[in-house]
């Protein structure tokens, strides 16, 4: 094992998969000579040349669609969105083409493509650059949606996503790139899509979160421990496919559940998880399932307002106390 | 309907515009019976296939949207005749003819439109989404212009692998105003992808004529901004279409350069079955029917020495082929599965 950053983990995953399979290539804005807007593709141009690390102009719909077409005839593209905020201008390619071609062609054409890039609010980049679209993509049959929270998961999940035969929307935490974790030093570190991970064990309440909110929940769990409450933190890691069994097992054990997401509350993915859990765990639940989300507003710029809008440790603690009928 | 203008010859032009002269005023393109006979047969089969679809639609055997290509057959047949088997074709929702010209038999096409298990895509796609991997037919797409980057992607893969294949990407002139088209051709030009973009300009994007859609009606001029070769011509003569597209295909195959080709054509029917076409004058439609690419090729075959008896036999053969496909579609079992193709396990 080696302690590496989330950014380095993603970089290793792509480098190893490109070494392994000549059909894998990267395309996106600034991925080559600039070494990536967030330096995730650092050094890949030097290693693999312009043929396989392709700097694209600002034309997300165009290069996302080129990826889909190339995938249909046998290549395995990694399409980098500088951020997922810009994926909206390519969403027709992702939803109408990538997600549907396998089905529309009755299984004749597969689209083994990864759309990846940073997602979620960063710091003071205001409303158009601070969004979490996982609920949009998780809504679509034919897509897989991956949201790693640690360097360990980022590497293992990205390698699996690149080898997957289906289109995968791989959303990285924009504020997680510098976080570190122990990662195995093997080029076969693969984590299957659709397997949740218990990030902290506990007995009193289940906290369900993905991407950066896992870190918020781990901090909240420390705070709760001081109050004598042991929280279990479960990270689904992939929203589609969703490992509902692991989530449900934890909820059956604790009897209480708080779902924490940085996205907006209305039709957020947490609502879907809550629905499935109440179906599966009704007899074990001792309280209604709580949700903690960002406020239902476009993100403000001012730092104090930005913090107020997003789920904080204190918000998670408060929700847990509600679920335990302590307040 | 006084605002409906005459055809492209009178369209708004600029000094750079490639004027399209009326084709019946031009010289005939040299051809032979050997070359023209299979092209005529394909066009006729597509016409009969489309007529069978129109009938089946009125009988309720086909549901949803149905866009017929009647009148435009010379474009897809001529263009695809310029290809090799390994080459790719990407098309729109008006793509039955393109699929047939690329080698997809009439039986699975009609069975698909009938929503049957034996359909080309098992009743999952219908009229707008025909796909045949074995023929390198990369599909029919229902979002205008959304497939243009996909065509560029297939061409990107050909360049990446060096497999020498060329992609033909078809779309209507209505697609030239949307982002997918703009970005697709821009990237193909930038990266020199082996693709030929073929604008089947039937002069109406649904019910809106060109002059109300485009400030400059010459779609091929979009190539100029990208330094891309372009061509623009009348598409009534299937042999001319084949020759001119062959030039662009050859350029793509040998130099990797894309071309934007605009072919002027006309659909005799409405945009879809629900469109009575009230935005066009009867005179305009009659004028184009007089120029019917099928009638013209048929006359050419007679001029080249084919007898009426031989032509009659060919036409009987086509009729039998389509009747057989209709019977096949009628008798096939209904579609019966949709789950296995959402995610590949």
Brief summary:
The complex is a heterodimer of chains A (about 325) and B (about 350). Chain A is of the alpha/beta class.
Describe the structure.
The complex is a heterodimer of chains A (327) and B (345). Chain A is α/β, with parallel strands linked by helices and 327 residues long. Chain A folds into two domains: 2-183, Rossmann fold (3-Layer(aba) Sandwich); 197-323, 3-Layer(aba) Sandwich (Rossmann fold), CATH 3.40.50. Chain A contains twelve helices and 14 strands. In chain A, strands 3-2-4-5-7-6-12 form a seven-stranded mixed sheet, sandwiched between helices. In chain A, strands 9-11-10-13-14 form a five-stranded mixed sheet, sandwiched between helices. In chain A, strand 2, helix 2 (44-52) and strand 3 form a beta-alpha-beta unit. In chain A, helix 1 packs parallel to helix 7 and helix 9 packs across helix 10. The longest helix of chain A is centred in the first third of the chain and has 15 residues, at 6-20. Chain A starts with a strand and ends with a helix. The model of chain A has no long low-confidence stretch (mean pLDDT 98). Chain B is α/β, with parallel strands linked by helices. Chain B has one domain (31-268, 279-324): Rossmann fold (3-Layer(aba) Sandwich), CATH 3.40.50.970. A six-stranded parallel sheet of chain B has the order 2-1-3-4-8-7, with helices on both faces. In chain B, helix 1 runs parallel beside helix 10 (308-331). The longest helix of chain B is centred in the first third of the chain and has 26 residues, at 33-58. Chain B starts with 32 loop residues before the first helix and ends in a 14-residue tail after the last helix. The chains are: A alpha/beta (327), B alpha/beta (345).
């Amino acid at each position: 094992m080696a302690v590496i950053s989330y950014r380095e983990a993603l970089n290793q995953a792509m480098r190893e998969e490109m070494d392994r399979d000549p059909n894998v290539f990267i395309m996106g804005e600034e991925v080559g000579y600039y070494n990536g807007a967030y330096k995730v593709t650092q050094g890949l141009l030097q290693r693999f040349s312009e043929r396989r690390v392709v700097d694209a102009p600002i034309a997300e719909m165009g290069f996302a669609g080129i990826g889909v077409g190339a995938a249909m005839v046998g290549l395995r593209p990694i399409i980098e969105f500088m951020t997922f905020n810009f994926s909206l201008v390519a969403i027709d390619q992702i939803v109408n083409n990538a997600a549907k071609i396998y089905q529309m062609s009755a299984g004749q054409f597969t689209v083994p493509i990864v759309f990846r890039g940073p997602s979620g609010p960063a710091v003071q980049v205001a409303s158009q650059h601070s969004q979490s679209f996982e609920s949009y993509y998780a809504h679509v049959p034919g897509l897989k949606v991956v949201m790693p929270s640690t360097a360990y998961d980022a590497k293992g999940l990205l390698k699996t996503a690149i080898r997957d035969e289906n289109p995968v929307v791989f959303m990285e935490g924009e504020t997680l790139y510098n976080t570190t974790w122990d990662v195995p030093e093997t080029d076969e570190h693969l984590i299957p899509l659709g397997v949740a991970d218990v990030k902290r064990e506990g007995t009193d309440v289940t906290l369900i979160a993905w991407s950066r909110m896992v870190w918020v929940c781990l901090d909240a769990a420390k705070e709760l421990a001081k109050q004598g409450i042991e929280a279990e933190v479960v990270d689904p890691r992939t929203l589609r496919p969703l490992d509902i069994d692991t989530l449900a097992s934890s909820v059956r054990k604790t009897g209480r559940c708080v779902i924490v997401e940085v996205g907006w509350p209305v039709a957020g993915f947490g609502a879907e998880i809550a629905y499935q859990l109440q179906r599966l765990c009704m007899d074990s639940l001792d309280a209604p399932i709580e949700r903690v989300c960002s406020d239902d507003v476009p993100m403000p710029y001012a730092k104090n307002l930005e913090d107020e809008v997003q789920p904080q440790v204190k918000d998670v603690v408060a929700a847990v106390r509600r679920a335990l009928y302590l307040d | 309907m006084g605002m409906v203008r005459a055809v492209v010859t009178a369209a708004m032009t600029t000094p750079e515009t490639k004027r399209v002269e009326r084709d019946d005023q031009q010289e005939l393109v040299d051809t032979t019976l050997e070359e023209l006979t299979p092209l005529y047969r394909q066009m006729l089969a597509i016409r009969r296939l489309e007529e069978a679809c129109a009938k089946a639609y009125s009988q309720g055997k086909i549901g949803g949207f149905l866009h017929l290509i009647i009148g435009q057959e010379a474009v897809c047949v001529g263009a695809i005749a310029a290809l090799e088997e390994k080459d790719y074709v990407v098309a729109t929702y008006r793509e039955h003819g393109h699929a047939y010209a690329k080698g997809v038999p009439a039986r699975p096409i009609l069975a698909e439109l009938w929503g049957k298990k034996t359909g080309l895509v098992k009743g999952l796609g219908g009229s707008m989404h025909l796909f045949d991997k074995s023929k390198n037919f990369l599909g029919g797409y229902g979002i205008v212009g959304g497939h243009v980057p996909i065509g560029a992607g297939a061409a990107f893969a050909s360049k990446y692998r060096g497999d020498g294949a060329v992609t033909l990407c078809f779309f209507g002139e209505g697609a030239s105003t949307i982002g997918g088209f703009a970005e697709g051709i821009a990237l193909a030009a930038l990266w020199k992808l082996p693709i030929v973009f073929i604008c089947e300009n039937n002069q109406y994007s649904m019910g809106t004529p060109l002059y109300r859609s485009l400030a400059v009606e010459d779609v091929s001029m979009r190539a100029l901004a990208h330094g891309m070769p372009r061509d623009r011509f009348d598409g009534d003569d299937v042999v001319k279409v084949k020759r001119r597209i062959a030039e662009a295909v050859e350029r793509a195959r040998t130099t990797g350069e894309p071309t934007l080709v605009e072919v002027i054509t006309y659909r005799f029917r409405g945009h879809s079955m629900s469109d009575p076409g009230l935005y066009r004058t009867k005179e305009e439609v009659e004028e184009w029917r007089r120029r019917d690419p099928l009638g013209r090729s048929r006359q050419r075959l007679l001029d080249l020495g084919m007898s009426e008896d031989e032509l009659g036999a060919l036409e009987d053969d086509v009729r039998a082929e389509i009747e057989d496909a209709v019977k096949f579609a009628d008798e096939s079992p209904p579609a019966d599965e949709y789950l296995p193709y959402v995610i590949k396990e």
